[in-house]
């Protein structure tokens, strides 16, 4: 298993703080399916880089810098989920697929995907036209 990146950690810490008001090593380890010792190591690095403030035994809080990036990461994750849903990806695949691609796209690509999501949402007939193509392709298989 590849080591989850700093982005994954910041994203999960942001989500945990939003949901519960705090993030502990054990919560982060569970959210990312990693060993607590990996969390401790990464948290120290994130502390050093000023994304969060690490207080032993008390959990962490994100700095302004950490919050700002956390917010963008969660926005990106949610946008990509929306995008995959719109293009017809099965619900069961969406979370894993987003986790797989989210760190590898430029912010330019994210913004263009945002345009595309808007393009479909503004006019439901566009989604219907796409669904029609998908039905045709399914039937042709
Ligand atoms: Mn994610």
TrEMBL record:
Residues that hold Mn(2+) 2 according to the record: 11, 77, 99, 102
One Pfam family recorded for the sequence: Fe_dep_repr_C
Record has Nucleus as a keyword: no
Main location: cytoplasm
Keyword check for DNA damage: no
Domain HTH dtxR-type as annotated: residue spans: 1-63
Record GO biological process: intracellular manganese ion homeostasis
GO CC terms: cytoplasm
InterPro entries to which the protein is assigned, alphabetical: DtxR_MntR_Metal-Reg (IPR050536), Fe_dep_repressor (IPR001367), Fe_dep_repressor_sf (IPR036421), HTH_DTXR (IPR022687), HTH_tscrpt_reg_MntR (IPR022897), Iron_dep_repressor (IPR022689), WH-like_DNA-bd_sf (IPR036388), WH_DNA-bd_sf (IPR036390)
GO molecular function: DNA binding; DNA-binding transcription factor activity; manganese ion binding; protein dimerization activity
Entry binding sites for Mn(2+) 1: 8, 99, 102-103
Regulation: DNA binding is strongly activated by Mn(2+).
Subcellular location: Cytoplasm
Keywords in alphabetical order: Activator, Cytoplasm, DNA-binding, Manganese, Metal-binding, Repressor, Transcription, Transcription regulation
Family: Belongs to the DtxR/MntR family.
HAMAP family found in the cross-reference section: HTH_MntR
Function: Central regulator of manganese homeostasis.
Quaternary structure, from the entry: Homodimer.
PANTHER family linked: IRON (METAL) DEPENDENT REPRESSOR, DTXR FAMILY, TRANSCRIPTIONAL REGULATOR MNTR
Protein name (Swiss-Prot/TrEMBL): HTH-type transcriptional regulator MntR
Naturally occurring in which organism (per UniProt): Neobacillus thermocopriae
Gene name, Swiss-Prot/TrEMBL: mntR
